[in-house]
Amino acid sequence: MLQTLKNKWHLFYANSDNKQFLRFLLIALILRMMIMPFFGHIDLLSEARRVFYWAENNIFIDNIARNTTMFIEVIFFRIFHFLLPESQSMFFHADIAHSMASVPHSFEFVSHLTTFRTFFIFKIPYLVCDLATAVILYNYFSDKQKGLRSSIMWLFNPVTIFAFYIFGRFESIPIFFIAAALLALKKNKIILAALLLGLCLNGREMMILYFPIFLVAIVFSTNTLLTLRQKIIGSLLIIVFAAVTMQIFSVLGIHTVDAAGSEGVVLVKENRIQHLFAFSLHRIMFLPLAYTLVIIWVFISTVSEEKKLLLGGGIAMMSFFAFTAHTAHFTSWMVIFPAIFYGYNRTFLKPFIVFCLVWVGYWMFMTDLGVFTLWLAAPFSLHFTGIPNIPTLYSHMSGNFGIFDLNMIIYMMRTFFLASLISLAWLMIHTTIHSDEKTLH
Amino acid sequence: MKRLSINILHLLLLLSLPQLCPAGEQGMVREEWKLNQIQQTPSGFMQRSGRDPYIVFPPMEATNYDITGVVMEIAFNPMPEKPFLMELFWCLDYEGFSEYRKVFFVLLPEKKGDTITFFVPLNNQGGFRQFRLDFPRDIETSFQVKRFEIVTDQQIAEDVKRIEPFYKLTVTETRTPGVIIPYILHGIQHGLSRLLKDPAFLIVWVLLIFGALVTTRIISRDLRKQEVEESDK
Fold this sequence. Notes:
The structure holds 2 protein chains of 2 kinds. Chain A contains 22 helices and 2 strands. By secondary structure, chain A is mainly alpha-helical. In chain A, helix 9 (144-155) runs antiparallel to helix 18 (336-344), helix 17 (305-323) packs across helix 18 and helix 19 packs antiparallel against helix 21 (406-434). Chain A is globular, with a radius of gyration of 22 Å. Chain B is 31% helix and 25% strand. At the A-B interface, helix 2, helix 5, helix 6, helix 7 and helix 20 of A face helix 5 and helix 6 of B.
């Protein structure tokens, strides 16, 4: 067994592409380890309190919409709990439903003497899923140079680094599962893909956008390699997972309560769902419009299921950011798509750089890149919380800038952001439709 | 109608009052302190009665430019389990308390005893006339300010804990290089010094990064060697 593993490792290490990949993976790991202990949003405290509560009470599955993320976080917490001597003082509260999402609570939390190790340890599951996603991208292509390209974009883009390690959110967990589902689809392993995508849907509520695309792609697949049995099992699996995510059983009158004692909330009743339908013009809603076009394309197209989910899922997710309100770290959800397409097509690099720059600019003026000076730098030093944020500074400085006040700058940045999304979407469509079959398959 | 009279029993009761209420001497709120959403318990401790508990201390006789900080001694019953945030505001005669004339600081619970004694350094060129001490809005424990002493020199007893105060910069201050650069440098220094408070983590963290760096170097060396070998072929 050990000898077999050794031989496999030597075989892997003998390849120069693999060596390059390992080197980039390690550089990415160093970069991440250097920032992991020092930054984080108050949401990390809220999440940590829940994880602590679940772990202490041996709860691994709850009546919530994101059990995959919860399960992974609880498992990691159970493994590393012994390294957190102050966990009781940091996370325990007699009433788990009591909100701690306030400035004083955040500052009290980050003032613990073991804050740095706590932030480091709580981000380990995010790190593992993030690096595992890079491994998936590297193995996504038979041509290792393409895989290397794709994984480098994933490992060194500012959006995901910000989301997972500076904002400190669990987004890498569901993203890992969508990446794994895409790889399984590419290898025609439909049931495995359905299972992985189902875990992705149960990792983050908004991943539900992938569900109809996957279902239509499977049900109306013209792929002769897929058997009817695979189609039925794959479809049923994804329907069950989607039903759990949407807590659809609550609609049927089944009363649910989560471990914290809060009543189960149906996804359609959540406030955030209103964002999906908020952007409209003369009663025409733009996100549903884009989504319908995606579904129609998935229905009529003859490309592989993998490409249907890749392009359809990518366009659907990017439409979400184009036409709805969101926060800075949510953008990490869509980065997986340009990263894969960059493997297929080198020309993605420049529009992606533009997209990253515009994303930084937009969020700098919108909320100081996710309220960096108020929350995110607080774990490193509370002194940074005393610096006024960029929107405040710009407001004071823009007195002589004519029409270019803060609102105008935000509108302009938002427009640039939309333009960068459209350019990426156009390139994704172009790559899918016009590229040589050899390049894409 | 019963006649009102003072007898020996009344006198005895009056004399024994300080013994019955031992906090009366030291812990009872001084009359000139203004309490906001704070009520006093029979034991002389204080408890919050609302979401904005604070004490306003009496104004000083004259504006004082020499103040270097405040020494406080606060007893808790019981000692809080978590760190908690407090704010210290100041003002001059002609101005009220403001977010830009305050420091906030976080007190870490003492493992032994029920009292925390600490020094909060203050640096304000405009002088001080009056102070206000804000307690956490959801503080659940009782507290007693045993000492609130304004000090005018840096000679603070060694056993008194020195607290790191945090304050807000105005936009004007932020745009002044002479203010913002030292402020940021101090913030970085403070952050790095906090790493030393958890030496076990610091050692593991540095070793992890060092190990990853060494491994990267080894792989880079092997890669170069392989490239040379392949180009030779």
